[in-house]
Amino acid sequence: MTMEVRARAPGKIILAGEHAVVHGSAAVAASIGLYTSVTLRFHSPSDNDDNTLTLHLMDVGLNFSWPIGRIKEVLPDSTNTIASSPTTCSPETIKLIATLVEEHEIPETKIGIASGVIAFLWLYTSIHGNKAATVSVSSELPLGSGLGSSAAFCVSLCGAFLGLSDSVKVDFGQHGWAAFGEKEQQLVNKWAFEGEKIIHGKPSGIDNTVSTFGMSDNYHFALVFFIFFQQYPKIKPKSIL
């Protein structure tokens, strides 16, 4: 059996206070029924010693792959991070990770994707270190539309990564989608905020919070959980609706 997990996170809409929230004021926001989905699969011995970390961005047609040895070379301290304690990526580390991204050719029209790939590499190596894996991302959210596509990207990444970590408890014995508890949701949200900081610099945190908790009321109150998981065999996977 191959270990796989899928997480999905919704986009958001800010009804009031979009600019004020950046300065610490309250805002009214809600999650929307458009999602970003992430599938994470750890490589097994049957994968012919595929010792790489691979990222497939399905909607933009971009694929990235790094030998684990190369990641270790650029980020020798990547195994020192504790998944249960989110940390901020330093400017120096962002520059190092950028060298990994620059090893792949990104079309000029899609160069904005680069910061998201940097966030991916930071979040993955911080949570799973140098473990070989394949990550696939698809989204119903249009990029740059103000609907929280980057936050949904970060939240779904963190949901999948933490779902197969030792830092959270997920009941894989049940069938269908399963939700994180509040404590686990908080951890997802904190890591996703670190990813948003890489992409946007100084985000307010409202986008990733709404995407994590599915809020439909004031910024300070969580109402609905939207992160889901499923594990299934490699040979005969279940369909997930």
Automatic annotation (TrEMBL):
One of its GO terms (biological process) is isopentenyl diphosphate biosynthetic process, mevalonate pathway. GO terms for cellular component: cytosol. InterPro entries: GHMP_kinase_N_dom, GHMP_knse_ATP-bd_CS, Mev_gal_kin, Ribosomal_Su5_D2-typ_SF, Ribsml_uS5_D2-typ_fold_subgr. It comes from Lactuca sativa (Garden lettuce). This is mevalonate kinase. Coiled coil: none annotated. The keyword rRNA processing does not apply. It holds the Pfam family GHMP_kinases_N. Its EC number is 2.7.1.36. It is an enzyme of class 2 (transferase). Residues 128-213 form the GHMP kinase N-terminal domain. The keyword ATP-binding applies. GO terms for molecular function: ATP binding; mevalonate kinase activity. Belongs to the GHMP kinase family. Mevalonate kinase subfamily. Keywords: ATP-binding, Kinase, Nucleotide-binding, Transferase. Pathway: Isoprenoid biosynthesis; isopentenyl diphosphate biosynthesis via mevalonate pathway; isopentenyl diphosphate from (R)-mevalonate: step 1/3. It comes from the Eukaryota. It is found in: Cytoplasm.
